[in-house]
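Quick start: what a row looks like.
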Amino acid sequence: MQTKCIRYGLITALSLLLTACVAPTLKLVNHVGPITYEGSTEFSSKQTESGLVVVAFRSVHRFLPDTQIDYEECNNVLNSVAKGLPSITWSEANITAHEYNGVTGIANTTCTYTYSN
């Protein structure tokens, strides 16, 4: 009986481990123009009457979740795309989506900002 319980326990643990490797993470991003891919980052921008609209998406692996770092890194992408315009802080950016998958350790963050002309 005890061997049977151990066997079922091992099968369950192995199944959870294998399904964790394929657990989906959300990718909620609405790009505004042609998409540029750089490693774990993608971004797009578009000049409008209101200013330069920049959308950024980052997907990174984190052993422990850290929302502020995710926001800061997404904000850094916004500022790097908006070269020559005044930089913004992470608290000024619009975080449109953020997700951390605790099983896979994947953190996805989408942010956007409109830099005034």
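That is the whole record. Strands lie at 36-38, 41-47, 51-61, 94-101, 106-116. The first strand starts at residue 36 and ends at 38.
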